[in-house]
């Protein structure tokens, strides 16, 4: 089963001061759950692309279905 995720790393992430030097400390990821309600839920799991609009604070994504 495929579960698409979106990840984020801050552009100027220097890592930790000593313990995690040169290791991303701002890395985070999230699973996008874009399903339709109903008796038989349909999940859009296969993400093809994503873009963030900083003016709106919204992530836009395009999906395909199997």
TrEMBL record:
Q: Which GO terms describe its biological process?
A: axon guidance; positive regulation of cell migration; semaphorin-plexin signaling pathway
Mitochondrion found in the keyword field: no
Q: Which GO terms describe its cellular component?
A: plasma membrane
Task: Show the GO MF annotations.
Answer: chemorepellent activity; semaphorin receptor binding
Which keywords describe this protein according to UniProt? Differentiation
- Coiled-coil annotated residue ranges, if any: none
- InterPro entries named in the record: Semap_dom, Semap_dom_sf, Semaphorin, WD40/YVTN_repeat-like_dom_sf
The residue ranges of the Sema domain are 1-66
Q: Which domain of life is it from?
A: Eukaryota
> Which protein, by its recorded name, is this?
Sema domain-containing protein
Q: What is the lineage of its organism?
A: Eukaryota, Metazoa, Ecdysozoa, Arthropoda, Hexapoda
């Amino acid at each position: 089963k495929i579960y698409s995720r979106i990840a984020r790393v801050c552009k100027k992430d220097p890592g930790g001061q000593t313990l995690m030097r040169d290791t991303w400390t701002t890395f985070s990821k999230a699973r996008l759950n874009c399903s339709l309600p109903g008796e038989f839920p349909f999940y859009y799991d296969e993400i093809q692309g994503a873009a963030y609009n900083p003016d709106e604070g919204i992530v836009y994504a395009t999906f395909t279905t199997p």
